[in-house]
Design brief:
This protein is α+β, with helices and mostly antiparallel strands and about 600 residues long. The protein has 17 helices and 20 strands. The protein is elongated, with a radius of gyration of 26 Å.
């Protein structure tokens, strides 16, 4: 049974033997999107798929039945299913009435079209109507309408990643779409499934490496396993998937996009595909449990005390239930990754205190949109979030306002240092991140005396001639967190004049945390929802700091906005340097 957020066991660590880790992560080609050759190849593929030659390749016998039905590991939304039963397809804030529905209508936003064309609504209908006959009665008219409209190649509906998802969902919910007594309809569905698989025989391998290609290959593997005579297809897809996962999933279990939500999505599709072999009473290939065994501990290392994974690098926060579903399918138990040597995420924990820090460069533009939040951290005391980032928009069911979504990506929306109110990595008007942080160096040490983390980034090196460094120390009992943020002259700019700049160190407080300034203005008392109190103090270049309390927000995994506060330490560099010390200490037990 899944635990709900707020009921997590504390992350009590046993006395640790000394452990050290150090290294640097580079963002190579970070501001470069898809190459010209990739874009030309995509255009050529679309043109090819529209030709009589490709339509000829799609011909062939259709199966009379499927060999098995895999279990869909992701539950649908009963509320959405109820709306579908009432005649409305609602997703991403867009409503389409089923009575006059056209799936290919350009008025539908892209996110809605991807959802509708992937047949993800099958999950919602199944969740709302557990009775198979009742669910099939709602499902079959939608399927028939889609087949009538998109049975021939359409660039949006037949995109390889969408087709891969549609294949898996159709196979996993086959009882809903294949229980009809209408043999013509049933044959049309089985024929369509076979045609999509033949399309993916080519289209999946033409995709650029990434999450979309993994989804396409997972669907192709499922089709090869469950459609009679597909053994060769299954072997080919599995080999390609193994090669892709070798680059998409990092050695420490992180994902190349550096977006935890992408890792959750990938794990869910791999679990779905892995269930195809047991559905026909054969053993699942080891690639699936082995990959899941690396992904899940990495994700668990990002969880705070409330069970939620924060919004990192483009994705929204992840609810506890999503990770619980994955953990139940993983053989790694309670194992978690603390030092992300390749992923860049680091975990400091003791007693009831958990801290997660992003000590890696932003993802490259061809992989993800990303956030400019390098060296930001989140902190929890038990089930209460004490320090957090403002949140993210990627993957939310209901989209956020465009201006708000863009603001969540900025450096100022993260609990880290900002120079001259400028993002550490540029955010282009079109969405992808531009130039900025290229290298992040880190050093971590853990012993019975506590946990140290020292990291730096060069995001302001070329623009302002400064390197940003953050040093953290967490005491063995988790009740004392000390930090120092520094601006240091960049070595490459020592002979250049470096004008002094203003800076701000922000600590966005979690929902329900009440901040009261101290009498000297150099700190604040923080009362958490569970009643515990923390004292925050600051110092600048050895003297008292100045802390102001500003309004802030936090976006939870459902996309709900919570009004919060932020502690801000402001100052100005001197000779391109500054040292800002701060601490958070728990008062009492």
């Amino acid at each position: 049974m899944a635990r709900k957020a707020g009921t997590r066991a504390p992350d009590n660590d046993p006395p640790a033997e000394p452990q050290e880790s150090a290294g640097a992560l580079l963002r190579i080609g970070g501001d470069t999107g898809r190459s010209l050759s990739d874009r030309l190849a995509t255009r050529a593929s679309i043109a090819l798929y529209n030709t009589p030659l490709h339509r000829l390749r799609l011909r062939g016998r259709f199966p009379l039945k499927l060999l098995g039905v895999p279990e869909d590991p992701v539950p649908g939304d009963p509320a959405t299913g109820e709306r579908i039963a009432a005649g409305r397809l609602i997703h991403a804030g867009h409503v389409a009435m089923i009575r006059d529905l056209r799936f290919a209508d350009p008025a539908h936003p892209p996110a809605w079209r991807d959802w509708a064309n992937s047949w993800a609504w099958l999950r919602d209908i199944a969740a709302y109507l557990p009775d198979r006959k009742a669910a099939a009665a709602r499902t079959e008219p939608l399927v028939a309408r889609w087949l009538a409209e998109s049975g021939q190649y359409d660039p949006a509906a037949w995109r390889a990643d969408v087709t891969g998802q549609r294949l898996l969902l159709a196979l996993g919910h086959a009882p809903l779409i294949l229980s009809s007594a209408d043999h013509v309809y049933r044959s049309a569905v089985l024929s369509a499934i076979a045609i999509w698989a033949r399309h993916l025989d080519r289209a999946a391998f033409r995709m650029a490496d990434g999450l979309g290609k993994a989804q396409a290959l997972a669907g192709l593997y499922a089709a090869g396993t469950l459609i009679p005579g597909g053994e060769a297809r299954s072997i080919t897809a599995l080999a390609a998937l193994e090669k892709l996962l070798g680059t998409l999933v990092l050695p420490d279990g992180g994902i190349a996009t550096r977006t935890p939500r992408d890792a959750v999505i990938l794990a869910e599709w791999l679990i779905f595909a892995a269930g195809c072999a047991p559905a026909i009473t054969i053993r699942s290939p080891p690639l699936f449990p082995d990959t899941l065994g690396r992904l899940v501990p990495s994700l668990k290392g990002l969880v705070l005390g409330d069970g939620i994974i924060g919004a990192w690098n483009g994705g929204a926060a992840i609810p506890a239930e999503a990770l619980d579903r994955l953990a139940r399918r993983s053989a790694t138990g309670n194992a978690l990754t603390r030092n992300g040597r390749w992923s860049g995420f680091h975990r400091l924990s003791a007693g009831k205190t958990v801290l997660v820090m992003d000590a890696g460069p932003p993802p490259v533009s061809r992989h993800a949109t990303g956030h400019a939040g390098t060296l930001a951290f989140e902190l929890s005391d038990g089930v209460d979030r004490l320090i957090t980032n403002c949140g993210g928009a990627g993957g939310l069911t209901l989209p956020l306002d465009a201006v708000l979504a863009a603001g969540l990506r900025t450096t100022a929306a993260h609990s880290t240092l900002v120079i001259a109110q400028t993002n550490s990595t540029r955010i282009s008007d079109k969405g992808p991140l531009g130039r900025g942080v290229d290298e992040v160096s880190f050093q971590s040490r853990r012993s019975e005396e506590g946990h140290w983390l020292d990291a730096s980034h060069d995001g302001y090196g070329k623009r302002f001639g400064m390197i940003v460094r953050r040093q953290l120390f967490l005491s063995p009992d988790g009740q004392d967190l000390r930090g120092q943020d520094s601006n240091e002259p960049a070595l490459k700019s020592l002979l250049r004049r470096r004008p002094d700049r203003g800076y701000d160190v922000r600590f966005h407080l979690g929902p329900g945390v009440a901040a009261t300034p101290t009498a000297d203005g150099a700190g604040a008392l923080l009362k958490l929802p569970q009643g515990r109190v923390w004292a925050m103090k600051s110092r600048i270049d050895g003297g008292p700091g100045k802390v102001t309390i500003e309004a802030s927000i936090w976006v939870d995994p459902a996309g709900t906005l919570h009004k919060t506060q932020a502690l801000v330490i402001s100052g100005r560099t001197s000779g391109a340097a500054a040292n800002i010390g701060w601490s958070f200490k728990r008062a009492g037990k």
